[in-house]
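Dear Dr. L.,

I hope this message finds you well. Following up on our conversation about the binding site, I have prepared a predicted three-dimensional model of the protein together with pyridoxal-5'-phosphate. For your records, I am including the exact sequence and ligand specification that went into the calculation, followed by the structure tokens. Please feel free to forward this to your student if that is useful.
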Amino acid sequence: MNSPAPSASATRLPPLFGLIGNTPLVALPFRAEGVTIHAKAEFMNPSGSIKDRLAAYVLLDARARGLLRPDSIILECTSGNTGIALAMVGTALGHQVRILMSDTASVERRHLMRHFGAELQLFKADRGYLTGIEMSEAMAAADPRIFLTCQFANPLNAQDHAENTGPEILRQLPGPIDAFVSGYGTGGTLNGTSRALRAAHPGLRVVAMEPAEAAMLSGESPCCHSIEGVAGGYMPPLLQGVNIDWPEKVSSPDALAMTRRLAREFGLLVGTSSGANLVAALRTAHKLPPGARIVTVLCDRAERYYSTKLFSESSMGVPSGIPPDDRLK
Ligand SMILES: Cc1ncc(COP(=O)(O)O)c(C=O)c1O
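The resulting structure of the complex is given below.
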């Protein structure tokens, strides 16, 4: 792990921590479009998503500052990946972990959290993340053992990406970087990574991928979509103040088709937000001069989506012989 929180002693940490962060940056040549996109392979983190970084950074910071006691209960409201990461890291540090998640999050995520030993409580998804955030605040007010990681408002979430994810990309891709494209759930990835990349490349374009069905940055109302992990019906505080050049709307069918294309053309077993990010990155490439160097994120692994549309037979129809770019229409 290259992301120790302030004054965390790496020597006494479980070996798991050595597996978090420092993910590869892979160059994906999209031949049909004549464009290469550079993608940060966050699905290679040990619990399978970018959220391992947040869990390790926030919990090690809390431990270093004496905020975690042996009887502390780690509590978070999450669409799933943060819950899986906190369950893995929190229990490895010897703590009880309680996760509040929307009843629309995939069943595989619930299994993974329980497998790591976390306790789950589901809430109705009709108000987006707000219900879960209010529940977690009420629980914390009633029980002094509760430690809230507060992924939506915690500045450490973005700080970790500014100190680690961004600098990793700068080391992995020397020379100019023209655009960074990412979806937002908490906004931590967009906020911190773009801050680090822009400090090195002041002309960097920052593009926020958002589901076409929940395009809040584009001024539209949030509705149901199939890109789990992003645009949860709530504008996260961490996104405020981020200098976004433009939002790129991606529909759920386009995101699903690209996620399957990533598996079939590149052998990448990733989730739907990764596909959505690549759709947005390719569109960004067409808006910038030829040869522009664009970085995006492969956020998580596909195996937590077996029960979702991504794998359902009715939506598997990507006929062979059709040029890949046509599959997106
Ligand atoms: C699959 C997936 N993609 C993207 C994101 C967005 O990351 P962030 O919360 O840093 O905005 C998340 C966050 O939960 C996620 O789970």
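In brief: The pocket of pyridoxal-5'-phosphate is lined by residues 49, 51, 79, 81-82, 183-189, 228-230, 271, 273, 299-300 (CB under 6 Å).

With kind regards,
A. P.
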